[in-house]
Design goal:
It comes from Inquilinus ginsengisoli. By secondary structure, this protein is mainly alpha-helical. It contains nine helices and four strands. It has helices spanning 23-31, 40-47, 51-60, 71-87, 97-100, 106-126, 137-154, 163-178, 181-217; strands at residues 9-12, 17-20, 37-39, 103-105. Helix 7 runs antiparallel to helix 8 and helix 7 (137-154) runs parallel beside helix 9. The chain is globular and about 70 Å long. The termini are far apart.
Length: 221
């Protein structure tokens, strides 16, 4: 019988209290679960009220690296559902079965976690609840709106143009998971950088189009 999803808290032997578990701990438990495949629904259940940030990170992080053409569109589609719901203030994340039923072999998931976990654990040592003014019911809606825009940018066919938006979403995600306003600040800075890059690319494309039309038609635009 498959293991139950890992819980959000765990007893702390030192204090006798229950503590909130780290993202990397939940991932490792999922990777070690006695099942053949890991579905998006399993991740959703495992992270509970942190599902927004957890799934944003799962779908955004791969886009921060060079990937085959079309990958950003596949991974970006679930981000549209997630970030839209964060923007409108939903307290519980809902995803269609078409997404939640998607799964990968547990062995493949375990290999991915083995590569990610050491980096996550290093980052988690730096992350902690702080600058909480930047995180909350109202602030989270603004974060959701920014991430929705970034998710749309991921769909644009811009060579390597998905990396900065993905980094921004990932920073917002870890900020939401760990309630760390510093990480959220990094997300806002990366969002500004992504917007600047998009504006620069758009201006360059428009200039190239004007030059082409002027040469072709002999008119000034």
């Amino acid at each position: 019988m498959p293991d139950a999803p890992p819980t959000e808290t765990r007893d702390d032997p030192a204090s006798g209290e229950r503590r909130r578990r780290r993202f990397s701990e939940v991932l490792r438990d999922l990777a070690a679960a006695d099942r053949e495949r890991i579905a998006i629904a399993d991740i959703l259940a495992a992270f509970g009220d942190r599902a927004f940030g957890a799934l944003m990170l799962v779908f955004a992080a791969p886009n921060a690296l060079p990937t085959p053409p079309g990958t950003s569109s596949v991974l970006g589609a679930p981000l549209l559902f997630i970030t839209f719901q964060l923007m409108i203030g939903r307290s519980v994340l809902w995803l269609p079965r078409l997404i939640t039923n998607r799964s990968v072999a547990r062995a493949d998931f375990a290999r991915l976690v083995d590569r990610m976990a050491p980096w996550l654990e290093k980052a988690e040592r730096l992350l902690r609840p702080r600058l909480t003014l930047l995180i909350g019911p109202v602030a989270d809606r603004f974060i959701g709106a920014a991430c929705l825009l970034l998710a749309v940018i991921l769909f644009l066919p811009i060579p390597l143009g998905n990396m900065v938006p993905a980094l921004a979403i990932a920073a917002f995600a870890v900020g939401l998971i760990e309630r760390d306003g510093v990480a959220v600040s990094v997300g806002w800075a990366a969002t500004a950088a992504a917007a600047g890059i998009l504006v620069a690319i758009s201006a360059a494309l428009w200039a190239a189009l004007r030059a082409f039309l002027q040469t072709l038609l002999g008119v000034t635009i």
